[in-house]
Amino acid sequence: CTMRPLSIAKLRVLGPLPALLLALALGAPTAEASSPAAVDQTLEEVSRAYQKGNIEEARTQLIEAMKASPGEIPLHVAYIEMMIGLGQREAVEEVYGGLVITNKRDAVSLYLHGLTLETPEARQAAFKESQKVAPRFPWAHLGLASAALNLGHSDQALAHVRDALVLDQTLEPALELFGTLLAANGQLEEAIIAYEALAEQNTAIAR
């Protein structure tokens, strides 16, 4: 799940920089991307620390990982989910909203900001803008699938996640959502195929 690094060199914020924003600003925009295995290992370590109640340790691990590889979308997704879970939605929305202000035509920034928004309608609008900017950006299609599902439109969600997988058949969260939607729709054979593809992807990354 490797994407190009975020365009953060031009980011300017008045006043004290939030911890995440500082981490992003310190990361070199041309930094080498981590391997999928390294990203997965980081996320597993973060998950273990979080589950043990070591919240600050988990948060710090993610920030350090993002400093090293600011373009790794799964790290940002995990950070956003963690912060929202800790009741810090407004803070993380402000940070990623700052990226959008600076990078209005950047699909990655638009997608990540969309994840921080509270309502499925707002998230859907952000993901549509991301997809409009970069029609072949699979994460935008995945976001649209998630938003459609939250709005009760499972058929639309299935269509969007199919689009995401056409663009990147190894996108793990898309494979997982695809299998879940197919199973819920009674398409068990297709769901099994999707889950097998996800298992194969996980095995390949672990090698």
Description:
The chain is an all-alpha fold. 71% of the residues lie in helices and 0% in strands. It has eleven helices and no strands. α3 runs antiparallel to α4 and α4 packs antiparallel against α5. It is globular, with a radius of gyration of 17 Å.
Task: Describe what is shown at a glance.
This protein is an all-alpha fold.
**Straight-line N-to-C gap:** 16 Å
Provide the gyration radius in Å.
17 Å
Average the pLDDT over all residues and give the rounded result: 78
Biggest β-sheet: count, sense, barrel? none
Please write the string of helix (H) and strand (E) elements.
Answer: HHHHHHHHHHH
How many individual β-strands? 0
The percent range for strand residues is under 5%
Helix coverage percent: over 70%
Shape: globular
What's the number of helices?
11
Given helix and strand content, the structural type is: mainly alpha
What would the keywords be for this entry?
single chain; 207 residues; mainly alpha; 11 helices; 0% strand
Give the SSE map.
Blueprint: H1 19-26, H2 36-51, H3 55-68, H4 73-85, H5 89-102, H6 107-116, H7 120-133, H8 138-150, H9 154-167, H10 172-184, H11 188-206
